């Protein structure tokens, strides 16, 4: 499982080009490529980020399993 997760993460980083700074993997296996560093709000428990299309998004911080700088 971890080998597949690492492979998917590596592919996401390669495909993302220079437009993003971080890749987040979720506990469900989703890879989220962000523009810039995601911001963690400890009061709300949410992580805010800008997706590849420039849209502001949030995810529950408990759902993020790993955050890797590109």
Automatic annotation (TrEMBL):
Domain of life where this protein originates: Bacteria
The Lipoprotein YgdI/YgdR-like SH3-like domain, residue ranges: 21-69
Keywords, comma-separated and alphabetical: Cell membrane, Lipoprotein, Membrane, Palmitate, Signal
InterPro entries recorded: LSM_dom_sf, YgdI/YgdR-like, YgdI/YgdR-like_SH3-like
PANTHER family documented for this protein: POT FAMILY PEPTIDE TRANSPORT PROTEIN, POT FAMILY PEPTIDE TRANSPORT PROTEIN-RELATED
Pfam families documented for this protein: DUF903
Protein name: Uncharacterized protein DUF903
NCBIfam families attached to this UniProt entry: lipo_YgdI_YgdR (NF033216)
Transmembrane segments: none
């Amino acid at each position: 499982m971890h080998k597949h997760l690492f492979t998917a993460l590596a592919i996401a980083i390669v495909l993302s080009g220079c437009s993003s700074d971080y890749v987040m993997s979720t506990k469900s296996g989703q890879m989220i490529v962000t523009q810039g560093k995601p911001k963690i709000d400890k009061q709300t428990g949410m992580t805010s980020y800008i997706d590849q299309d420039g849209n502001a998004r949030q995810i529950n911080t408990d759902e993020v399993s790993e955050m890797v700088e590109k």
